[in-house]
Protein: EAL domain-containing protein
Amino acid sequence: HAKARGKGRVHTYDPSMRAAIMRRRQIEADFPAALVRGEIRPYYQPQIEMQTGRTTGIEALARWHHADLGWISPAEFIPIAEASGRIIEVGRTVLESACRDAVRLGDGLAVSVNLSVAQLVREDMVETVRAVLSETGLAATRLKLEVTESVVMTDTERAVSALRRLREIGVSIALDDFGTGYSALSYLRKFEWDELKIDRSFVKSLDTDLHSLSIIEAIVSLARQLRIAVLVEGVETQEQFTLLSKAGCRTAQGFLFSRAVSVEELPELMKRCLEDAPNWRRGEALPA
Ligand code: C2E
Ligand code: MG
Ligand code: MG
Ligand code: MG
Structure:
């Protein structure tokens, strides 16, 4: 094993490690061309009102179909974009496309866009958002920006000040992956969040860990008192839907409703969600 031989030094002649490094280099080098060719664009996952199946908003999730490598997950390319500084261009492209698509979809649909810390703390962040809104014609009130705790943690003063200015122009702000960080509760006081997104790890452990349900109930009640909307992420099964609904959750995202789809597929999908709503709610009729 290379590591054992080299006292912790990395030897690039380990074939699988070498391949991983080459892949990373290629991804890093290919951002400019991918952006020019439009290979990176958002897909959209609907945010569902659980009672009715109505789509209240959509989350833009970056997708890259690479000419040689095929589909690359954002879990892989976003960190590479962040490390190499390309996230500014990638993030702006996603933001622009998301705003344009939201205008095209009409119907007052809100669109959520994920932000990286490098984007948020840039001097011209608010100006960029303002410019994109005016170029695309999207009302600021229909744009929601999602940040994680780690984004706020990195440079709290600057991040919070940028978030305030964004909120002043009418944009909503969501705290993403809530509950996974170190000091989740302290970040609730630092800013007037519009929405908390409960991380899917809580949902995932609902079947095996009784505490998860109590934690979700507590977050829902806390958020209600603070007048922050709650959305629960990663709902995959009907059983989870029933438990979450009983815990007071009203809005959800997850594979039970839909994966992220292209903007072209979205209208059909939203229709299907309305039709499917009675099926998800079947479980609620059963005795506890
Ligand atoms: P996120 O913002 O927390 O997005 C939710 C992720 O969970 C998405 O993964 C989504 O496809 C996935 N997901 C949704 N429902 C379910 C479910 O029921 N089960 C499971 N197992 N997963 C579900 P995705 O699209 O791979 O994105 C991963 C992360 O990459 C996002 O997490 C976000 O942090 C980041 N990301 C994606 N697009 C962008 C972007 O344009 N800019 C930035 N800065 N980050 C982005
Ligand atoms: Mg998100
Ligand atoms: Mg999330
Ligand atoms: Mg996440």
Q: What stands out?
A: Residues 59, 114, 146, 176 surround magnesium ion (ligand 2) (CB under 6 Å). Residues 46 and 119 are 24 Å apart (CA to CA). The two ends are 54 Å apart (CA to CA). The chain has 13 helices and nine strands.
